[in-house]
């Protein structure tokens, strides 16, 4: 139905600190004027310093959430993901195989950071050119489009991400590197923004470019809360 208000879904873990995971997704989707629905798969005890504890929810209650949503909503775009930056791995090792073999081939877009991309491809990223090879290797796993996020590539003045599209075309998105440790939730925020834009019917390339601009603003426009969440009000 074309006159339905745009609705999106995030399948995510809860972050008690409110800055990453499901909460970052909800804040971002709301800011893009899209109705957010969510399937909670895990609960984490977390703040902007790190993850202190995590509990995966039983499959039955996860299935029940999907069933409830299917009975009521017209979801146009959905996202998932729960591997944190900085070595705090929120996904069991066996689950990485499932992501690689079963989930990735279903995705319109995958948006790994470099540690995630390395875990999925076995390739190391030391310079920007490596991100091109990693993008190509990821696309062979089956997702249509790939966004390789370069935030973890140190020693440069820029934060550059590489995008490889379904038709084989590619482009870089580069923004000035903001000198801060306050980047908790950036991965969730960029992918939630892309999801929200897709739910509105925006084309994929434009959705990705809008999301890069939004995440940059959320890092730049700091708020004094804890040790540093993003500012999801930034525009
Ligand atoms: N210090 C920074 N300044 C500006 N942009 C950044 C910075 N760190 C990360 N980004 C951007 O934020 C997004 C997420 O980055 P990244 O750190 O690679 O992924 P993740 O948050 O999943 O670990 C990317 O678009 C990246 O370019
Ligand atoms: C529940 C949950 N999900 C995902 C992340 C990833 O965080 P980031 O976007 O900073 O990599 C997180 N820290 N917690």
Automatic annotation (TrEMBL):
This is Hydroxymethylpyrimidine/phosphomethylpyrimidine kinase. Residues 82-228 form the Pyridoxamine kinase/Phosphomethylpyrimidine kinase domain. GO terms for molecular function: kinase activity. The keyword Kinase applies. It catalyses: 4-amino-5-hydroxymethyl-2-methylpyrimidine + ATP = 4-amino-2-methyl-5-(phosphooxymethyl)pyrimidine + ADP + H(+); 4-amino-2-methyl-5-(phosphooxymethyl)pyrimidine + ATP = 4-amino-2-methyl-5-(diphosphooxymethyl)pyrimidine + ADP. Belongs to the ThiD family. Its EC number is 2.7.1.49, 2.7.4.7. It comes from Limosilactobacillus portuensis.
């Amino acid at each position: 139905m074309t006159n339905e208000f745009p609705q999106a879904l995030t399948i995510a873990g809860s972050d008690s600190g409110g800055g990453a995971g499901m909460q970052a997704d909800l804040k971002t989707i709301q800011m893009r004027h899209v109705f957010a629905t969510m399937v909670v798969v895990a609960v984490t005890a977390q703040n902007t310093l790190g993850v202190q504890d995590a509990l995966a929810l039983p499959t039955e209650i996860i299935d029940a959430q999907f069933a409830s949503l299917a009975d009521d909503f017209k979801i146009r775009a959905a996202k998932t993901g729960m591997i944190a930056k900085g070595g705090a791995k929120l996904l069991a090792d066996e689950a990485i195989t499932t992501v690689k073999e079963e989930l990735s081939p279903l995705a319109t877009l995958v948006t790994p950071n470099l540690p995630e991309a390395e875990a999925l491809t076995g390739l190391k990223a030391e310079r920007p050119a490596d991100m091109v090879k990693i993008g190509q290797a990821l696309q062979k796993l089956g997702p249509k489009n790939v966004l390789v996020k370069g935030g973890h590539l140190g020693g440069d003045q820029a934060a550059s991400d590489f995008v490889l599209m379904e038709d084989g075309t590619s482009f870089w998105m580069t923004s000035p590197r903001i000198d801060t440790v306050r980047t908790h939730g950036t991965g969730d925020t960029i992918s939630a923004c892309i999801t929200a834009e897709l739910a509105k019917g925006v084309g994929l390339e434009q959705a990705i470019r809008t999301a890069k601009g939004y995440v940059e603003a959320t890092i730049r426009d700091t708020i004094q809360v804890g040790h540093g969440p993003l500012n999801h009000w930034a525009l």
